[in-house]
Amino acid sequence: MRYFDYFCFEMDKQQLHNDWLNKRKKRKADLTVEHLLAGIQKQDITLLSSAITMIESTLDTDRVKSEELIKKCLPFTGKSIRIGITGVPGVGKSTFIESFGQLLVNEGKKVAILAIDPSSSTSGGSILGDKTRMEQLSQLKNVFIRPSAAGETLGGVARKTRESIFLCEAAGFDVILIETVGVGQSETLVHSMVDFFLLLMLSGAGDELQGIKRGIMEMADALVITKADGDNIKKANLARREYQNAMHLFPPKKSKWQPKALTCSSYSNTNMDLIWEAIVAYENHTKVNGYFNVNRKEQDKFWLRETLNENILRGFYGNEKLQELLAQFDQKVIREEETSFTAAEKLYQLYIQNLTNGNI
Amino acid sequence: MRYFDYFCFEMDKQQLHNDWLNKRKKRKADLTVEHLLAGIQKQDITLLSSAITMIESTLDTDRVKSEELIKKCLPFTGKSIRIGITGVPGVGKSTFIESFGQLLVNEGKKVAILAIDPSSSTSGGSILGDKTRMEQLSQLKNVFIRPSAAGETLGGVARKTRESIFLCEAAGFDVILIETVGVGQSETLVHSMVDFFLLLMLSGAGDELQGIKRGIMEMADALVITKADGDNIKKANLARREYQNAMHLFPPKKSKWQPKALTCSSYSNTNMDLIWEAIVAYENHTKVNGYFNVNRKEQDKFWLRETLNENILRGFYGNEKLQELLAQFDQKVIREEETSFTAAEKLYQLYIQNLTNGNI
């Protein structure tokens, strides 16, 4: 844009700039749901990106269009394998995906890489924010990389990522990798939208420093010790055996899958094939015993509630009259005429009264 | 209980057991709101614990009693300084609190220590779960240590911690420390309920491994390098200077407070007094310029919304008729007659219709 501005200045500035503005306006208007759907089905990466940007938008008009687009994409979804990847910062998630993604592409897969980053709302920074961290992978055909959405709530960020999965599936991607930071609730949310959950660990750093709680280890379908190269190989193998033993003591999984412990090196591209084999074995295992489908249905039920919650809350916050009431109660709280508790209670009663009386 | 059962068996089993059951029933019934309030105001730690357990309970009867208790406590709250403490696992939060807490007690303060642990809902484990990690501190008079509540959502866990703050203040505690894990959204929530935000960091571990995003550093009122003892002192001082310089580049805070970078050692109890001095200086600074009170009011507005959201959602999930409808739509999703999106939309419409018609 900077060079373009300068260029305009040198040329007939006003005329060129107007042309550009009109073109941009036209381009935005072009993005109808039909246009986007057609683009997605043709695997047009630019239009897929625009569609995801629309999903992430908080504008009301975008929201309505997004819902329509997702509905139209749904019949074309569900055919990929969705893989969650987690581990603390520093474990090497980006380099792992760089290496693992290339193996998948060599296997003829179309790979989409999404992220859920709970810190993106505070910091603006995000996992996958820097495509240069996956320099080679991002240049391959059949690869789509998208950084985490930002948002006010982790649930909202996660929901948008889940909707992006559907768009990517409709665009024909057959492996979806979803990256998240390895601490806290974002794992639970990733777990609620993937078929296979992969936990990356460092050897020797100790569980505590890695912030990996037992609950997260219990969710893992495979645990992979990264950086198993050079002097580190022996230590990594030792850690692998320890984790393999530990995982035998965990309660059996509903999937009846015995989680695997593996090592890998993104640096020397070692064992990436074994990890992919484990995932394929898992897919076969759970499709035979029916768990694969049962799990997706359970996830649908979970997201039914998440979407419902959002609808219910929007019923309040999307209403102008109620927004005015809220502003009034804010003032009462500031003047100490109400506490946040009593104000919330009274506002809720007013909401229900207004609904019942048909005032809103 | 096991030994007790055995004991009953040896003695006149039935009679003793009935006596015990009656005693327990009586004890539970004893816990009226008035009884709990009186106990809290007398600084009865056992009753304060029972009251917090009631707040954390999901039973409807407990919720009603909790709201009443909190309302009755509110006039006695607000007089403490509330300090948020964060840092990645391994930075030494527990040992820091062990050392810092003892300094506060020596200064004549009554110290309550609470926690928000986003992983407690998945793992069952939690920060402060093990009181032996603060062995000396937990044995002091005037100290109250309470592990993180567990809950389905981080927001819910945080709300219960905030309510516990009020109970602790009503019980006369004048310093409240709230511990959280140093990654993700739990910081934002802790930040929304404290006056002063303390970030613990390791020297030399690198920002990335510590999972500390810039957004979290920008929230800090003081940044403290831990483990500054023995061979580590030089490295810690170097890191301190670097962070001090970095923080000068951050946008100025609404509080007009210039954040401090400090070092400390929990092992040799070094510099704990400087940290407390910084907090006292902050309190004076922000009470003079008015920010202290403005910030608490802003927090009240935030929690007005959080509490309102909970009320609104309870309006749906607390209703039997709607629960039945939800179960029906679950079945439709499982039979693939509805997607999670269309089901959520239809359920919401039915909710509003039922409200408007006065059916629920």
Q: Kindly report the oligomeric state of this protein.
A: homodimer
Overall shape of chain A: globular
The sequence of SSEs of chain A as H and E is: HHHHHEHEHHEHEHEHEHEHHHH
CATH topology of the largest domain in chain A: Rossmann fold
Task: Report strand order across the widest sheet of chain A.
Answer: 3-2-4-1-5-6-7
Characterize the structure shown.
The structure is a homodimer of 360-residue chains. Chain A is of the alpha/beta class and 360 residues long. Chain A has three domains: 2-73, no CATH class; 77-289, P-loop containing nucleotide triphosphate hydrolases (Rossmann fold, 3-Layer(aba) Sandwich), CATH 3.40.50; 303-356, Helix Hairpins (Orthogonal Bundle), CATH 1.10.287. Helix content of chain A is 57%, strand content 10%. In chain A, strands 3-2-4-1-5-6-7 form a seven-stranded parallel sheet, sandwiched between helices. In chain A, helix 1 packs across helix 2 and helix 15 (320-334) runs antiparallel to helix 16 (340-356). The longest helix of chain A has 27 residues, at 291-317. The interface between A and B is large, with 68 and 68 residues.
